[in-house]
Each structure stands twice: as C-alpha cells, then as structure tokens.
Design goal:
Distance between the termini: 21 Å
Bound molecules: glutamine
Strand content: 5-15%
Number of helices: 15
Largest sheet: 11 strands, mixed
Helix content: 25-40%
Shape: globular
Radius of gyration: 21 Å
C-alpha cells in the first residue's frame, strides 16, 4: 500500500513507530502532486520542497524525543486558502489578495501545527468561499479526481479533491452553507462541519461570519474525529468561540447505533432530488436500521425558505466583511487612478470576480435603509424559525439523515451560467449553518457515471459525537459498492 493511500491516522501510527519517516511521508505527498496536480489543480500554492522538508525534520525530532505524541504528528496536510498561514501566500482564490502573505496563522492552523502537522500547501476554492463548484476561483478551476470533466463541488473543492487524489493525507475546509459537506460528497471523502463556535474563526477570512465554521476533510470518520479533536479549542480572540468540555470526539468512534432515533425529513426527498442519489441514501439508511437504529420519517417544514434566508444573510454579512478590501491596507491595488475614490472603485472592480460582486451588490441592497426590514430582518426571523423547527425535531431524534446534495457533481461549465439554479443545490446543507448545527457527509455509493454520492447526518448543537457514532457505524457496516 502506498503511503498516500493510508488514512491520516494509519500514517500517523506508522510514523510514530518509526516505520515511515516524516520526510518520507512529505515526499510521497509531493510525488502525488507532481503526478496529478497539472490535471486536477487542487492547490493555489504548493510550498517549496526545502521548506516542507525543514518542517518535516523539525517534527521528526520532536517525535523522536517524545515531545510530540499526537496521532497526526508528521502527517502531510493541506489548508484551504481562506485560512491565514504565517509567511505563506493566502489568496482566498481572489485576485484582490493575490499578493497577501499574512503575518500570523489562523488558530485552527496553529492547533494543527501544535499537533505536528506538516503543511504541504494551500488549496483552491471558490473566490471568498462563494460558490458550489470551485469554478469562481481566480486561479483556475479544480477538477473532480473521479471524473475530470466534472467539478469537485465547492467552495472547499480544492481541499476535497486533494484528499481524494491523495495529494495530502487530510485537509481543512470551511463551511458557510455546505462548503465542506457538498464537495466531500462530490469527491467521495468525509467531512465535518462542527457546531458553530467549536473551532476558532480567528484567522479565517470572513465570508458570512455568523455562519462560517472550519472543519476537517479526510478519508474516513476516524480521521475526521481525530482532526476535529486537534483543531477545536476555546479561543478568546474569537468572540463567538464556545468553551466546551466535550471535545474528545474520538471517544465516539463506536460502531453501535442500537436504539438511536434517526429522523428522515420527508421534505428532503421530493422534487429536485436525483433518483440515484435518493436510492443510495435510502440504502444507507437501511444499513443503520439493520444495526438497530430506529428510523422515522417526519416533516421538518420551512425547507423552501432556507435558501432565500441564507442568501440574504450570507450576502449581507459578505458585503460588510469585504468592504475592508479597498487597495489601501493590503492586497491588490489598481495601477492607474485619479484620486482616492477612483482608486477604491478601480481596485475593487478589477480585484473581485463576478460572483463576489453579485453577492456584494445583493448584500448592500438588502442592508440599505429602505429594504432592511423587508429583506434582512425578515431573513433573520426566518432563520430563527428554522432553528426552532430543528429544536423540535431534536426533541424526538438523536440525529437527522439526509442527502448532502440533490445531485452528484455537475459537469464543468454547467453551473455558473444560472446562479439561481446553483444556489438551489445548497438546499440540504444551508439550514444546518443557519441553525448552527453540526453535520457530517460520508460517502455512501456512486451513480451510473461512477460519481460519488454523500449521505449527511445532522446533529443537535454540541452533539457531534452522535453523528460521528452514526457515521462510523455506517462506515463499518456498509457494503463494498457503498
Ligand atoms: N454554496 C454556498 C455559497 O455559495 C455555500 C458556500 C460555503 O459554504 N462557503 O454561499
């Protein structure tokens, strides 16, 4: 078995026992990158081999001297390019940050480094995490490793493609409306969006601050639980960070769902859901039932309001968050201009791509004085109602089972011409962000083109352990073709 086809935890064990060296693992990742990066384009930046090997040597020493004991020590990883990495270019896949080298690292990245991670590079994404296909990147599209004519999903498409193509052992992504779960589903990998406030957002370049969460993307549930345990922490630098005492996520890696109640929202299985995706999800639900889970269909309600509410709130927050990119403090500045206002205008016109501009315009519109009550306030009220609907569901169920996306990965070039249709593809993921809940996407089959399908398990706030247990049980008991 080649080094890069091992899971992160398996590789970590071999590194710990001395069977594989840290530098050897890093070189194996670089070799995979050399083999397939030209076709896939998972990365915006791959670090210099010298830099990676210097870090590998440092980590190896700490492992050898017993200072580093984490299961992830020495394992090569990739970071989505919207997380600040000290001294490493961080572009958010935008031209406006094309020259931005942060002077500090995001807290989640620091936590990973403390656990001995060896960063290989920064992964491609939709510009400022706005999109569902990784086609809005200013640095070229990323291709789905399972079929290069299809998108990897988005916005964490680069991270998911890098894991699927074995160009790193695991990666970090961020999820504002599904950006970890949907591309995980499209690329056949596993990803967790944690409860809002579990992983610090310090150093994550903000899109919709009330929705954004960083999470792991990996080959299996064990890796995801292990990575989540490493990156989660209370951080006073993030005012929305939550002090939790139950961050021992790996304790939930138990293959047993006997007596657990799983709700299946009827409203998620109607019009718009691809029949092959539907069949795969139902089959996956059957595996959990055979293992003792109690399945029940129910009406979640309000599902049709989630997309409009999300796009109003996310765009409103984005328009405010992105006002800082003005060509003055850092990032791109236009060449020729006459006066300050002209400089702002030209810099932003040239620096942002069309999808980002669309969101800024939509966000500014819904926040403007005449429309605030009609749109923004209404969206906030809808968000509260959606949270209430989930609260009621979790009075009865331990978790909710759903598809991660209504279809498998679309063909490259099919999505951007019709943004509204693309937004509708977020139907199963965005309510989870609006309600601040945790969700996991786990591979559960393939369609007739061989494209992966993902099942989503959604938990109540702070109930990651339940969804990890559910996903782990499924993983241990699924059939080969799942
Ligand atoms: N597709 C959604 C959007 O474009 C979600 C993106 C995300 O989670 N970052 O906003």
């Amino acid at each position: 078995m080649s080094i890069m086809s091992l899971t992160a935890v398996e590789l970590g064990k071999k590194i710990k026992s001395g069977e594989i060296g840290v530098a050897e693992a890093a070189k194996a990742a670089l070799e995979e990158i050399r083999n397939c990066e030209e076709q896939i384009n998972s990365y915006v930046t791959v670090l210099e081999e010298e830099t990676i090997l210097a870090r590998a040597e440092e980590v190896q020493k700490q492992i050898d001297s017993g200072v580093l004991d984490s299961p992830l020590a020495g394992v090569p990883t990739a970071i989505k390019d919207n997380m600040c990495t000290k001294g490493i270019l961080t572009t958010c896949s935008s031209k406006i940050l094309g020259n931005f080298v942060p002077s500090y690292s995001a807290e989640a990245v620091r936590n990973l480094e403390k656990a001995g991670a060896v960063i290989i590079g920064k992964t491609n994404m939709d510009e400022f995490a706005m999109g569902s296909t990784t086609e809005t990147s200013a640095y070229g599209i990323t291709r789905n490793p399972h079929n290069k004519g299809h998108v990897p999903g988005g916005s964490s498409g680069g991270s998911c493609a890098a894991v699927a193509a074995c160009e790193c052992s695991y990666a970090l992504g961020s999820d504002t409306g599904g950006s970890i779960r949907q591309p995980s589903s499209f690329c056949g990998v596993t990803g967790i969006k944690p409860t809002y406030g579990t992983v610090s957002r310090y150093g994550l370049i903000a899109y919709g601050s009330s929705l954004d969460q960083i999470g792991p993307i990996a080959k299996d549930v064990t890796d995801c639980a292990t990575i989540l345990e490493a990156i989660s922490s209370y951080d006073k630098k993030d005012s929305t960070s939550i002090q939790r005492e139950d961050l021992d996520f790996t304790s939930a890696l138990v293959a047993d769902v006997k007596g657990m109640k799983i709700g299946i929202p009827r409203d998620y299985f109607g019009e718009g859901l691809d029949s092959q995706v539907k069949a795969a999800i139902e089959k996956a639900a059957g595996v959990l039932e055979e293992n003792g889970a109690l399945l029940e269909e129910f009406d979640l309600s309000l599902v049709e309001y989630a997309i409009p509410a999300y796009y109003v709130i996310a765009s409103a927050e984005a328009s405010s968050n992105l006002s800082r990119f003005d060509g003055v403090k850092y990032g791109y500045r236009t060449g020729d201009y006459e006066g300050l206002h002209h400089m702002y205008k030209k810099t932003r016109s040239e620096g942002f791509g069309p999808e980002v501009k669309r969101r800024i315009m939509l966000g500014s519109f819904v926040l403007s004085s005449g429309y605030y009550d009609a749109y923004y306030l209404k969206a906030l009220r809808t968000k509260a109602l959606i949270k209430k609907a989930f609260d009621q569901a979790f009075e009865r169920y331990d978790m909710i089972l759903a598809p991660a996306a209504p279809t498998t990965a679309p063909k490259i070039g099919e999505s951007l011409s019709d943004p509204i249709k693309m937004y509708l593809g977020d139907i199963y993921t965005i309510s989870v962000n609006l309600a601040g809940l945790p969700g996991i996407s786990i591979p559960c089959g393939r369609d007739d083109k061989g494209l992966p399908i993902g099942m989503q398990l959604i938990g109540d706030c702070f109930q990651e352990k339940k969804i990890i247990r559910g996903a782990y049980t499924f993983e241990q008991n699924r059939s080969k073709e799942q």
